[in-house]
Amino acid sequence: MLRPSTLLHWLASCLLLVLALSAGATQAAGHERLSLDGGWLFHRGEVAMPAVKGHGMSYQNGKANNGWGAAAADFDDSGWRRLDLPHDWAVENPFDRNENASQGYRARGIGWYRRYLPLSEADRGRHIELQFDAIATHSTVWVNGIVVDRNWSGYNGRSIDITPYVRYGSDPNTIAVRVDADAQEGWWYEGAGIYRHTWLVKRDALHIATDGLHANPVKQGGRWTLPVEVTLQSSAKAARDGVVDVVLIDPAGREVAKGSARARVAALESAVARMKLDVREPRLWSLAQPNVYRVRAVLRDGAQEIDRTEVQTGFRTIRFDADKGFFLNDESVKLQGVCIHQDHAGVGVAVPESIWEFRLRRLKEMGTNAIRFAHNAPAAEVLDMADRMGLLVMDENRHFNPSPDYLQQLTWLVRRDRNHPSVILWSIFNEEPLQSTEAGYEMSRRMVAEIRKLDATRPTTGAMHGGLTTDLNAADAVDVVGLNYQIWIYDDYHKKHPKRPLTSTEDTSAFMTRGEYASDRKGQVMASYDDEPSSWGNTHRDAWKAIAQRPFIAGSFVWTGIDYRGEPTPYEWPSASSFFGAMDLAGFAKGAFWIHQAQWVKDKPVVKLQPHWNWAGREGQNIRVMVTSNAQRVRVLLNGREVGEQAVDPYEMNYFQVPYAPGRIEAVALSGGKEVARDVVETSGAAVRLVLTPDRPALAGDGLDAVPVTVSAVDAQGRPVPLAQDKVTFAVEGQGAIIGVGNGDPNSHEADKASERSLFNGLAQVIVQSRRDGRGALKLRASAQGLQGAEVELPLNAVAAPPQVPTAEPTTPLLSWRISPAAAVKPDPNVVLAENDMNSWGWDEPPMRRGPEAGAFRLYRSGVNVRADRNDGRAQLAFGSIAGKAEVWVDGVKLGEKTAAEPAPFSVVLPQGGGRREVTVLVEATPGQPSGLWGRVVLERGAP
Ligand code: GAL
Fold it and tell me: What was the pLDDT predicted at 216?
């Protein structure tokens, strides 16, 4: 039988619950994906954890919220640097010959990030997820002092369910991230820090899992269908039902197919809703017409939408044929591919999306149709871009290892990327010493099997640089055998394995310095004529010739499309970045760019003449002129007079020896006897003026958009000066900033994060980025000694930034309290509780309500770490509400006394001084009345 008072109490609680649930239900509606890039605090270097000693500390160390040092919620981060992500701290470091050549001679080390994360009461009951797109390299994440994630790769994203640990209301949560970038995963520059985007995703307790929408069209028997799987997850307390409505949206924005499915999801479980959409005559995704469709999944609970997500997809078929190579939509496509790493001039690995767009656009201009993101997963937005731009992608996993941790990295990659029409191959390894062995085969087999469970539509590959002749090797387990270099094995291997599709996964590896036309081993300079392959590689021309002439090799992946930091082969210090690129680190063309353009571009005539024509002192001497063109013939003219004409050699390209005379040298491309293209190079005088050429005429004022601006010098007649090396200083006015500078010289030790840069062989790059809510115009000025300066104005278009998590100032709540048993006699507030006594005093967090009880007195004890910005003798220890009379003691000194017994706010001023303080509150209850610390307790900054 329920007593009336209990019944009343019960009814009241039910009412409250219903109210809370309905409030929760309204609040929980919808999906919020907020940028968490802003408002971080950063400390470069380790923050030592205190040694765990003594029973009390050891006991606490064994508990969930055991984050010490900078991982602790109340750590004093008042002196830390404020910054926004993405952030690469390695690129901020100077070059140092004692650091690793492979990582570009820059210190990496350890760093810490902290961020205060406010969540409102309205968020209670939702599923709260923290997402890091990538952190280089080993990372540990704490929320409110609790370890919530550890990750050992700098290339995979992490989605962390932080729902159980977060607090709502007045006190923000604390996120702490320790990054160990001394750990290396590659032999190239890998950067350091939280270098991709960070998000906070709030969803209903029942929601679509991250990367939980799988929608990859398939064609069978001439019919297209779109099988859709939507993985639902629930953090609700009981089973829930959801209905998923899926629509397919064509490139014109029309809804062209629909489906619906329901699923029941048990508490803390997941379930998959499946459906199949019939799609009639979709517009195919191709390189020339990259038709991107969108698939939207909306999750409903009854009539109410509770979550939604959207992915890109495309309708295309792919096939690798053992004799004829690769087919896209049943048409043969030779892969004109490049390998690239992910760093760029000025910004390191923290590359804004718009700079990626610039890089991919430059590669397309070169005729590239395929990219191997070597040797790791690219950022998600880069694959979206590849879909939209019509580029094929070899999507590569970093670690060859089928053990659980690493397999998780592989399955993350496949889950994230399996809807992209651009992705045509999963690459599971690159040049593994175990590739020739049975172990290599067994490892491959397991990784391939795992991929097939998630995606049966794309073949797998692995990049072999040997080991192909053993009885059982890693290549035996993949669908398409990938060959790095070894062009001598192509025919033999094909003959022995006539049913195996083959592709180059990597070729070329030849050296060039932009704008240089004579190699100088001492000066660590390589001529840009494509004469210097590595001992294991080939020139750009030889590698392509071997591939282009063999239909059974699906295509080429040139090492590399763009230079990257580290691996300064064939040199070491002072060279700090690579010589392999067809473009330099800033995306300026080297000789190989023009070679590939002539070999690869089919839809328009191209011609390029190299070198520059500034050879004062060499009058009358022969200069080697290289002409690259896709036309039938090329003719060279010097100062209007014909020097020679040749049939174009589409592989070797064409050379002319031209006795130098200053003036104008021209290459005329001819097809069918008619001029189809012309390139003109002129001798220039001394530089007199700088020129700024932005890649685009305006910027989105969203705090994300960045534009590379080319800096060059011209002579009095406005002709480019190819050998100018002037030091240029930049200044920005308006709502934006310079985020990096570069010039593509692999031997340069000038800073990337700077407002000055020397031209290198006539060119430099400065990257400007808008500020959030940037309006008006951004003015960039360039000046150099002895030259006329330049100025360019970039209007900032009003474009809203993605929704952001508001920044929050730190608060110092006193959360963890010990509570003495109730006593009839007033106890000594400074009584020492034995370190090894875990039980005679209780443990709790405010609000703490006690009684009515037998004894009137209780002690409440906690500690507070006083931040340096709160130690000035004005800070207040504020109690939201104390019920009962009370004395507040800090470090054995009584600071205040509350004489009224009614529940009321109370505060004491904390004497000057930082560090750890012990706080004890002695509470005396009114007989028969409940008592305690009923409100939050927080250390507040005092009034100024
Ligand atoms: C390959 C390797 C690449 C790069 C290249 C340089 O062996 O896969 O990552 O190191 O050599 O030639």
Answer: 97
Distance 339 CA to ligand 1 centre (A): 10
> Does residue 703 sit within a domain?
yes
| DSSP, res 101 | G
Residue 811 lies in a domain: no
Among 655, 682, 709, the domain boundary falls at 682
Write the residue with the smallest CA distance to atom 6 of ligand 1: 509
Report which secondary-structure segment, H or E, holds 83.
strand 81-83
Evaluate whether residue 205 is within a structural domain: no
Closest CA to 187 of 451, 466, 580: 580
Residues 194 and 133 in one domain: yes
Alpha-carbon gap, residue 327 to 392, rounded angstroms: 12
| Cis ω before 930 (30° cut-off from 0) | no
CA distance 185 to 37: 25
pTM above 0.90, yes or no: yes
How many helices and strands, by DSSP H and E, does the chain display? 9, 56
Query: Strand 699-700 and strand 790-797: pairing?
Result: parallel
769 plus 862 within the same structural domain? no
Of 82-91, 393-402, 760-769, 852-861, which gets the smallest average pLDDT?
A: 852-861
Distance, CA of 693 to chain centre: 28
If one counts the domains in the chain, the total is 6
Closest to 920 in 3D by CA, of 943, 886, 944, 871: 886
Q: Give pLDDT tens digits for 109-143.
A: 999 999 999 999 999 999 999 999 999 999 999 99
Cβ(559) – ligand 1 distance below 6 Å:
yes
| Distance (Å, whole) CA 556 – CA 369 | 10
Query: 541 and 395, same structural domain?
Result: yes
Rounded distance between C-alpha atoms, residue 672 and residue 164, angstroms: 73
Q: Ligand 1 centroid vs 745 CA: distance in angstroms?
A: 20
Report yes or no: 299 and 208 within 8 Å, Cβ to Cβ: yes
Residue 625 maps to which CATH number? 2.60.40.10
What is residue 116's three-state secondary structure?
A: strand
Domain containing 916 equals 817-940
- Same domain for 531 and 492, yes or no, is yes
CATH code of the domain covering residue 108: 2.60.120.260
Other beta carbons within 10 angstroms of residue 244's beta carbon come to: 25
Q: Is residue 519 part of a domain?
A: no
Is 823 found in the same domain as 758?
no
Query: Does 534 contact ligand 1 (Cβ within 6 A)?
Result: yes
Amino acid at 600: W
Domain boundary among 663, 682, 701: 682
Nearest CA to ligand 1 atom 12: 509
Name the nearest CA neighbour of 528 among 504, 510, 503: 510
Question: For residue 567, which atom of ligand 1 is closest to its CA?
Answer: 10
The length of the chain in residues reads 944
Omega before residue 352 within 30° of 0, cis? no
- Measure the CA–CA gap between 910 and 354, rounded to whole angstroms: 50
**For residue 644, what are the β-bridge partners?**
636
Residue 3 corresponds to which tokens in the numbers above? 């007593």
- Token digits of residue 763: 């060119």
Structure-token pair, residue 650: 């589409």
Q: List, for residues 151-206, the tens digit of each pLDDT value.
A: 999 999 999 999 999 999 988 999 999 999 999 999 999 999 999 999 999 999 99
Do residues 727 and 857 both lie within one domain? no
Shared domain for 620 and 725, answered yes or no, is no
Q: Please give the distance, rounded to the nearest whole angstrom, from the Cα atom of residue 911 to the centre of ligand 1.
A: 62
Whether ligand 1 lies within 6 angstroms of the CB of 506 is answered as: yes
Reported as type and span, the H/E element at residue 13 is helix 4-28
Using CA atoms, how far residue 713 sits from 584, 689, 751, in Å, is 19, 6, 21
Do 85 and 166 belong together in one domain?
A: yes
Q: 460 C-alpha to center of ligand 1: Å?
A: 20
How much distance in Å is there from the Cα of 537 to the middle of ligand 1?
10
Q: CA 822 to CA 816: how far, in whole Å? A: 19
